[in-house]
Amino acid sequence: MATKNKTEVTEFVLLGLSSRPEIQPVIFGVVLIMYLMAVLGNTLLVLVACSDPRLQTPMYFLLSQLSLIDICLTTITVPQMLVHTFSVVRSISYNCCMTQLFFFMAVGSMEGHLLAAMAYDRYVAICAPLRYSAIVSHSLCLRITLTSWVVVSLNSLLYSVLVTRLTFCGNQVTHFFCDITPLLKLSCTRPVVNEMLIFTEGVAVVVSPFLFILGSYIRIGFVIAHMHSTAALSKALSTCGSHIMVVLLLYGSVIRMYLKPSTTYDLDQDRQIAIFYTLVTPMLNPLIYSLRNQEVKGALSRLLRKLCISGSFQVGSDKERMTNILRPNV
After folding, report:
1. Between the chain's N and C termini, which has fewer beta carbons within 10 Å?
2. How many whole angstroms separate alpha carbon 231 and alpha carbon 229?
C-alpha cells in the first residue's frame, strides 16, 4: 500500500496562505506590492553597488550578492502563490515541486553563508583595520561565494533526494510553496532519516554560519568596548548595525521553522513565519542597508541623478529629431 500511495502522487495541491475566498483579493494585493518592493529595492541596490566606483569594495560585492539572493528567494516562491490566489486548481507537478524545493533550500542556505562572509568582513575591518586590504580582497570574496554555492547545492540536493524517497499518504500541502516541513508532514511514516539529517548535517550547513557570525561579533564587541574615540565607536556601531538587524530577521525565523521535530510542526503558524522570511525580510533588507548607510544613500542619489539627466537628454534628442522631421524643406 505504501508503494501504491507513493506512485499515485504525481502532483501536489498547494493550499496557499488561506482558504477563505473573501480575503484572497487582500492577500493578492498586499503580497504583490511587497514582492514588487522587494524586487525593485534589491535590483536598485545591485545596480548601485555595481555601477558606482566608490562602492567597488569587497563589502559591497557581498551586499550585491545578498540582494541577488533575496530576488531569487522571493521569485522562487511568490509568483506561484500570486497565480494560485485566484486559481481554482492550485496544483504543482511532482517534478516541479521537487525542483522548487531544491532551489529554495539552496538559495535560502546561501543567504546565511553570505551573511557569515559579511560578518568576517566587518570583523577584519574593525579588529584589524590596517591589514584589511591585505586580508579581504575581491578574489577572496569570490572564492568564498563560489565555495558556498557548491556546499549549499550539495546540501540541497541531498535533502531533495531523500524527500523523493518518502512515501506520501496525501498530496495536499498546507503551504504556498513546496517546503520540506509540510512535505515531511505528508509522509506515511515518521521520516526519521530526514529528521536526523536536519539535526546533524543541517546544523552544520545552516547553523554553523550563525555560530560564525556570533563568534565574530563577540570578538568585535571586545574591540569596541576598548575604543576610546567616540567617532570610531560610532562608526563601528553604524557599520555593524545594519548587518546585525538582517541576521536577527533571518535566523530568528529559520531556527523557529526548521530546527524542531516533525511532531511539533504547526503548519498554520509555519506559513506565517515562511511569508516573513521569503517576502518581508527580502523587502526590508535594501531599506535597512540604504537608510543606515551614508555611502549607499550617496551612491543611490548619484545614480538617480544620472538616470534623470539621461532621461532628460533623451527627451530633448527625441524632440529635436521630431522637429527636424516636421520642418519643411526649403
Report:
1. C
2. 5
d(CA 318, CA 146): 45
Q: What is the largest CA-CA distance in the chain?
A: 90
Contact between residue 167 and residue 2 where contact means Cβ atoms under 8 Å apart: yes
Looking from the CA of 328 toward its CB, the CA atoms found within 13 Å total: 1
Please list, in sequence order, all residues whose beta carbon lies within 8 angstroms of the beta carbon of residue 142, skipping any fewer than 6 positions away. Answer: 61
d(CA 38, CA 282): 6
Asked if 247 and 113 count as a contact pair (C-beta separation under 8 A), the reply is: no
Q: What is the pTM of this model?
A: 0.83
pLDDT tens digits along 108-157: 999 999 999 999 999 998 888 889 989 999 999 999 999 999 999 998 99
Which residue positions in the chain have pLDDT lower than 70? 1-8, 190-195, 197-199, 202, 232, 258-267, 291-292, 309-330
Contact 159, 205 (CB under 8 A): no
209 C-beta neighbours (distance < 10 Å), count: 24
Q: Pairing relation of β-strands 172-173 and 91-93?
A: unpaired
Residue pair 275/30 in contact by the 8 Å Cβ criterion? no
Whole-angstrom distance, CA of residue 168 vs CA of residue 7: 9
